[in-house]
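Exercise 7.
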Amino acid sequence: MSFAVGQVAKLAGITIRTLHHYDEIGLLTPGERTPAGYRRYTDADLTRLQQILLYRELGFPLDEIAAILDHDTTDDLTHLRRQHDLLTRKAEHLHQLIAAVERAMQARATGIPLTPAERLQAFGDFRPEDHDAEVQRRWGTTPQYAESHRRVATYTHDDWRQIRAEAAAITADLAAALQTGQPADGPHAMDLAERHRDHITRWFYTCTPDIHRCLGDLYVDDPRFTAHFDTHTPGLAAYLRHAIHANARRTT
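Solution. The predicted structure, written as C-alpha cells, is:
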C-alpha cells in the first residue's frame, strides 16, 4: 500500500512543500512513482518520516538527521527509545521552566520580592519591578503580603526548588483531571484545589477558602494568569477556578 503526497502531508500535519523539499535534498525520497511520475510513499517511507519529524522536534537540523538515518545501523525501535529519552529530558526542562514561571507569578501576585537571580530564571529580560506599583496597590497593605514577605526571606535554593516542583505537580495533575473529563466540582478536582490551597498556606501565607476563592477569580479575570494556565492546557484557568469555588463551598 502506498500514499499520495497530499495524503502523507495530511497524516503528518506538514505541508506538501515540505515533503517536496525533503525529496529534493534526499532526506525522504518516496519509494514509488506512478507512471505519470507522481510521488507515492510506502509504509517504510512513513516510518522514516516519523523518525525525521521526531528528530526535528528535538531540534536536530536536517543534515544531521540525514546522517543519523543514513549512516547509523540503529534499528527503528532503538531510534524510538533514543527519541523517547531525549523528549523526556526536554519535557523535564520545560516543566522546570513552567514551575519557575508559576513561582514567579505567585511572587508577583502576593508581592513577594524576587532576587535578581530568581528574576532572571523566571522572566529573562522581563522586569517584574515595573509592576511594583500595581502589586503595592492591590496587596501591599494586606497581612498576607507581610506574612509572605517574612517567610520567603528565609527560604534557601532547595526550598525554592521544592516549591517549584510541588507547584508543577499540582498543575500537571489539574491538567490531567481536565483532560480526562473529571468534573471541576467533583471530589477529585476539589481535592486538587485543596492541594493548591495547602501549597499556598504551607509556603506563603494562610490561604483561607475565601482568599482562595478570590485567587481563583484572579486566574480568570486577569488575562496574564489565564494565558499562563491555558497555555499549559486550554481551559485550565476556568477549570481551576471552578474547582476552587466548589472546594470552598465544601470546606466552609
